[in-house]
Design a protein that fits this description.
- By secondary structure, the chain is α/β, with parallel strands linked by helices.
- The protein has a single domain (3-186), classed as Rossmann fold (3-Layer(aba) Sandwich).
- Helix content is 43%, strand content 17%.
- It has seven helices and four strands.
- Strands 1-2-3-4 form a four-stranded parallel β-sheet, with helices on both faces.
- Strand 2, helix 4 (85-95) and strand 3 form a beta-alpha-beta unit.
- The longest helix is centred in the last third of the chain and has 20 residues, at 167-186.
- The termini are far apart.
Length: 187
């Protein structure tokens, strides 16, 4: 941290700058990710909003993202099927070298002061995920800032359910993402 945020942002800028070559509509770029990718997508959206000439991102999709790396994983809600606290600490330590960086809004987007310039957002959470509470809080903060937010929690599901969970429920989540993108691109 913060290198992955800056590198990911450079990729988004490159896509925007080369949209014609890539046969893309530069005015219709969305960003998203699952788990750590959701954290990164959120951080890129925040960093983008702070730029003098931001990329016109139209949406972000956050699927069970970790948005508070400052809170000790042992202090987050516990579920038998959730990521064990010690493993979550290891994940955080691999990303955050200095303890104070865990409070930086690009590492822990839940601590961001300004959210009103962010694009419309879909937040997916899993009921039995220790990260669900912070994602729900972030969705509420976005909504309070005037950002159009849709949130859906998948009952009885654990972290990474879209990749390693019940196939029918995973397909429902993927369909929800696809439907959201269709609605965003129709606008």
């Amino acid at each position: 941290f913060p290198v992955p945020v800056h590198v990911a942002y450079e990729v988004v800028q490159w896509i925007f700058q080369h949209a014609d070559t890539l046969h893309l509509d530069a005015s219709r770029i969305a960003i998203g990710g699952h788990s750590a990718g959701g954290n990164l997508a959120t951080a890129v959206s925040l960093w983008n909003a702070e730029q003098t000439d931001p990329v016109p991102l139209i949406a972000q999709i956050l699927d069970y993202p970790p948005l508070d790396l400052a809170t000790d994983p042992a202090d987050k809600p516990f579920f038998e099927e959730a990521i064990p606290a010690e493993q979550a600490r290891q994940f955080n330590a691999m990303y955050i070298a200095r303890a104070e960086d865990a409070y930086h809004h690009l590492a822990s987007p839940l601590y961001a002061a300004q959210l009103d310039a962010l694009p419309q957002t879909l937040v997916l959470t899993a009921e039995h995920d220790s990260l669900a509470q912070e994602a729900r809080q972030y969705a509420k903060r976005l909504q309070a800032a005037g950002v159009a937010v849709e949130h859906q929690e998948f009952a009885g599901q654990a972290h990474a359910f879209t990749h390693h969970g019940d196939l029918d429920v995973a397909l429902q989540a993927w369909q929800r993402i696809a439907d959201y993108l269709k609605s965003v691109y129709r606008s």
